[in-house]
Amino acid sequence: MKRHLAPVVVLGAVAAAFAAVPRVSRAALHAMETSFDRRMATLSSDIPFEILGYTRGVYLEGYGAVFTAEVNLSQSIDITPFQSTIPKEYIIKLHQRKTERVPVLKRSMEDAMLDMAASLDAVSSGEQIVLGVTLFYRKWEDTSGLPSQIVMQAERQKLLDVKLGHTGRSSLDSVIRVAEL
Fold it and tell me: Fewest 10 Å CB contacts: which of 5, 33, 90, 111?
């Protein structure tokens, strides 16, 4: 009887080991992280967007892939021993620049989500692709009307339908759920 039990135990151990291995590889997530960082770094040639730290992605079995990043919409001056105050005109100009860049960031996030859906084959079609960007502001900035975070979420298959042209890009508003906090 013990001889017949041994193969069952070994098979159970092998099945448990495979179950513990995530379906989406770390390499695939890293490729998407690097791609988003590169996208942000090249979004504007005059005054660049800044990625603060690196984008991070995780795969949650049964849910999907989640990516987070922290972005400064525009480089700016700061208070230093040599610059003890920030001119009001500069604060107004920076606020206007950042306000104009929010739609640019959102469009880039949509493009990134389409690329993520196309590249992450191991994420099942019914699972989610989520991209959350936290926006950085200095204490002295005027943040009125600006979000502190933008989170986009969509089912991978619906993103693929848009990416592959089965559904028009104009349908992205109904495909991607956007939360601005």
Answer: 5
